[in-house]
């Protein structure tokens, strides 16, 4: 069992959403995001759930963090 506690917070107007989770209850936290998004009494949206779930997944052990975008130059053949 991991002793690290992850904290994820979202502030929307007067509402504050704070999620505390460790590696053992990561899946339950993801389900909670869905329950909150489906609750019409909350300002928490499916977009909020998607963004926060991505953050939760990025904190997973062994999860590779996204790298910086790379810039590529594309060469076009010269018109003949």
Features:
80 residues, alpha+beta, two-stranded antiparallel ribbon, 31% helix, globular
Task: Describe the SSE topology.
Elements: E1 6-12, E2 15-21, H1 26-37, H2 46-58
Summing up helix and strand content along with how strands pair, one would put the structural category as: alpha+beta
The N- and C-terminal alpha carbons lie at a distance of 66 Å
- Count of helical regions: 2
Query: Cα-atom Rg, whole angstroms?
Result: 19 Å
The low-confidence parts are none
**Strand sequence of the main sheet, in spatial order?**
1-2
Can you tell me the overall shape?
Answer: globular
Q: Mind summarizing the main beta sheet?
A: 2 strands, antiparallel
What is the mean pLDDT? 83
Order of helices and strands: EEHH
Instruction: Give a count of the beta strands, DSSP E runs of length 2 or more.
Output: 2
Q: Say what oligomer this is.
A: single chain
- The percent of residues in helical segments reads 25-40%
Proportion of β residues?
Answer: 15-25%
Q: What does this protein structure show overall?
A:
The chain is built from two helices and two strands. By secondary structure, the chain is α+β, with helices and mostly antiparallel strands. It has a domain of 53 residues. A hairpin with a 2-residue loop joins strand 1 and strand 2.
């Amino acid at each position: 069992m991991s002793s690290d506690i992850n904290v994820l917070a979202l502030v929307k107007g007067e509402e504050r959403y704070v999620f505390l989770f460790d590696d053992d209850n990561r899946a339950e936290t993801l389900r909670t995001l869905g329950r909150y998004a489906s609750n019409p009494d909350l300002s928490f949206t499916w977009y909020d759930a998607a963004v926060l779930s991505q953050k939760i997944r990025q904190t997973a052990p062994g999860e590779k963090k996204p790298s910086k975008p790379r810039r590529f130059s594309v060469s076009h053949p010269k018109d003949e």
